């Protein structure tokens, strides 16, 4: 038997790499990677999954999505915090008009009661506590760069 060593935070646990032939060499185009996501203990190895793709014109993979051991999901960033269940972050560039997050779908004729495009449902725990602020939707501007002009700004547009 060989001796074993305990894994540590950020150690690789395994991967699935998808390869393709580019006309000269076979190279990894996309991958799914598993890493240790915190300090392990007896019977407990917290882990995260990382999904990576290779951008056009590049040879190295870039992380695109992460599912952390806490179940939180980061898309376009690795920065989701414990207070963010889902964080989508990407610079908006390269188009005359662009939507950062879109939910698309067609309401079929068999739906006869109601259809909801986006729903926020929040409850409070039965225990007695004070919550000073309760938001269902929060939109705010971080800043407008010097020399920029924004003609209209909306928190919700319908």
Strand order of the largest sheet: 1-2-3-4-5-6
- The ordered string of helix (H) and strand (E) elements is EEEEEE
- Described by the principal axes of the CA atoms, the overall outline is extended
Mean pLDDT: 87
Helix share of residues?
A: under 10%
- Radius of gyration of CA atoms, rounded to a whole number: 22 Å
- Biggest sheet layout: 6 strands, mixed
- Give the class from helix and strand content and strand pairing: mainly beta
Count every helix, treating DSSP H or I runs of 4 or more residues as helices. 0
> How far from one another are the termini?
66 Å
Share of β-strand residues: 25-35%
Low-confidence stretches: none
Short description:
With 158 residues, the chain is mainly β. It is built from no helices and six strands. The chain is extended, with a radius of gyration of 22 Å.
């Amino acid at each position: 038997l060989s001796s074993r060593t305990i894994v540590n935070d950020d150690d690789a646990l395994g991967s699935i790499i998808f390869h393709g032939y580019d006309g000269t060499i076979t190279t990894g185009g996309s991958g799914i990677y598993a890493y240790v996501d915190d300090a392990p203990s007896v019977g407990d190895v917290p882990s995260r999954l990382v999904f990576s793709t290779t951008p056009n014109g590049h040879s190295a993979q870039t992380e695109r999505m992460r599912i952390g051991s806490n179940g939180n999901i980061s898309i376009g960033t690795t920065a989701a915090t414990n207070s963010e269940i889902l964080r989508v972050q990407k610079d908006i560039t390269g188009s005359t008009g662009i939507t950062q997050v879109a939910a698309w779908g067609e309401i079929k004729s068999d739906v006869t009661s109601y259809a909801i495009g986006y729903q926020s449902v929040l409850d409070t725990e039965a225990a007695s506590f004070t919550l000073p602020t309760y938001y269902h939707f929060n939109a705010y501007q971080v800043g407008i760069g010097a020399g920029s002009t924004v003609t209209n700004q909306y928190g919700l547009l319908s």
